[in-house]
Write a structure and sequence with these properties.
By secondary structure, this protein is of the alpha/beta class. It has two domains: 191 residues, Quinone Oxidoreductase, Chain A, domain 1; 138 residues, 3-Layer(aba) Sandwich (Rossmann fold). 32% of the residues lie in helices and 27% in strands. The chain has eleven helices and 16 strands. Strand 10, helix 5 and strand 11 form a beta-alpha-beta unit. Helix 3 packs across helix 10. The longest helix has 19 residues. It starts with a strand and ends with a strand.
C-alpha cells in the first residue's frame, strides 16, 4: 500500500479557491480501536462549505494538523483494523459520520482512519455513491422527525426546504408514520419533486402566503409540527407557522428571533434543536454509539425500499468548489456526492 494518498485539502479558510488536490501522507492506524477505510465516496454537505469559510477548530484539544480535510461523512471499504476492533472485518463496506473539521481529518480523501465503534455496514442494496448521499441528512432528519418532532399519524406537518437534502429525506420519513405534509419550495420544479416524494401540498414561498396556505390546508392556525431545515431568517418566520401547542424543530444554528420567546410562550410552542455534530465535537462516546444504531436502522429502511436519496450531482475533487457554491445558493435538489 502506498505511503501517500490524494486528498482535497485547504491550508486556510476562504472561498472555494482554497481547496486544492494534493498528494499527502496516508493516515495510519495508531490505536487498537482504529479502522482504516479506503474512502469510495463522501457526502458534500452544507457544513462543509461552512467549515471551509470559517476554518473554526471545534476541538481545541486536537493536535493542529495542516492541511484541513473537509467531509463529515463517508462510505468505503475497510482496509485494516486495530487489534481491539470487533464486529467489523477487512473488506466490509461501511459508512460513518466523523471528522471534516480543522484538527480532525474528514473524507475528502482516499483514506480515512476512524474509531472502529463509529463505523457500521452501509445499506447492501445500493452502491457507494447512492449510500454516500445519506448519512448526515438521514441521521439529522431522523432525530428531527422521530426524536424531537414526535410526529403522529394524522399530524399536519410543515417541512421548510422540502426539495433540499434534509427536507426530501424528512418527507419520506413522515410518509412512513402517516403524517400529512406541507412543504415550502422556491420553484415549480422543486414543488413537483416534493409532491412525488409524498408531500400533500407544496407552497411556493416566493409568491404565496405561507400562513394563509397552511390555515386553508390544515384548518388550524398553522401546522402541528414545523421542521426548519433552512434556519436564520426562516427560523424567525417559523414561529408564526406553528399552530398553538405545536412543535418547532430547528436543525440550522440560528439566532433566537426578536420576540420569539414571547410568541413561543403565547402559543404554547415546544421549540427544540438538532445538532448531530455535538457528540463528535465533545467526544461523547455514548451518543456517538447511539447515532451508529440509528444509521443501522436507516440502512435497514434503505434495504427495505422505504428510503432513497435523490442525487442532484456527482462530482470529483475538482468539482467540489462549484458544488459548495451551488449548495450555498440553494440551487441543488436533493444531495451532492463526491466520488473518489
Amino acid at each position: 500500500m502506498s505511503e501517500t494518498m490524494q486528498a482535497l485539502v485547504m491550508d486556510a479558510p476562504g472561498g472555494p479557491e482554497v481547496l486544492q488536490v494534493r498528494e499527502i501522507a496516508r493516515p495510519r492506524i495508531e490505536r487498537p480501536s482504529d479502522v482504516l477505510v479506503r474512502v469510495r465516496a463522501a457526502g458534500v454537505n452544507p457544513a462543509d462549505w461552512q467549515n471551509r469559510k470559517s476554518g473554526k477548530r471545534h476541538d481545541p484539544d486536537a493536535e493542529a494538523r495542516s492541511p484541513t480535510i473537509l467531509g463529515i461523512d463517508g462510505i468505503g471499504v475497510v482496509e485494516e483494523i486495530g487489534e481491539a476492533v470487533g464486529g467489523i472485518n477487512v473488506g466490509d463496506e461501511v459508512w460513518y459520520i466523523d471528522g471534516g473539521y480543522p484538527g480532525n481529518a474528514g473524507s475528502y480523501a482516499e483514506y480515512k482512519v476512524i474509531h472502529g465503534a463509529y463505523v457500521s455496514r452501509k445499506p447492501a442494496s445500493v452502491d457507494f455513491v447512492q449510500a454516500a448521499a445519506l448519512p448526515v441528512v438521514s441521521l439529522t432528519a431522523w432525530e428531527a422527525v422521530f426524536d424531537k418532532g414526535n410526529v403522529k399519524s394524522g399530524d399536519h406537518v410543515l417541512v421548510h426546504g422540502g426539495a433540499g437534502g434534509l427536507g426530501h429525506i424528512a418527507i419520506q420519513y413522515l410518509s412512513t408514520v402517516g403524517a400529512r405534509t406541507a412543504t415550502t419550495v422556491s420553484s415549480e420544479v422543486k414543488a413537483a419533486f416534493a409532491l412525488r416524494l409524498g408531500a400533500d401540498i407544496a407552497i411556493r414561498y416566493r409568491s404565496e402566503d405561507v400562513n394563509e396556505k397552511l390555515r386553508s390546508w390544515s384548518g388550524k392556525d398553522g401546522a402541528d409540527v414545523v421542521f426548519d431545515f433552512v434556519g436564520h431568517e426562516n427560523f424567525a418566520r417559523s414561529f408564526e407557522h406553528a399552530a398553538p401547542y405545536g412543535r418547532l424543530v430547528n436543525t440550522v444554528v440560528s439566532d433566537w428571533p426578536s420576540g420569539g420567546n414571547a410568541l413561543a410562550g403565547w402559543k404554547n410552542l415546544d421549540v427544540s434543536f438538532v445538532n448531530i455534530g455535538l457528540p463528535q465535537i465533545t467526544r461523547d462516546h455514548g451518543n456517538r454509539l447511539r447515532q451508529v444504531k440509528i444509521l443501522d436502522a436507516i440502512a435497514a429502511m434503505v434495504d427495505d425500499g422505504k428510503l432513497r436519496a435523490h442525487i442532484d450531482r456527482v462530482v470529483s475533487f475538482d468539482g467540489v468548489g462549484d458544488a459548495h457554491l451551488a449548495l450555498e445558493a440553494g440551487e441543488t435538489i436533493g444531495r451532492v456526492v463526491l466520488k473518489i
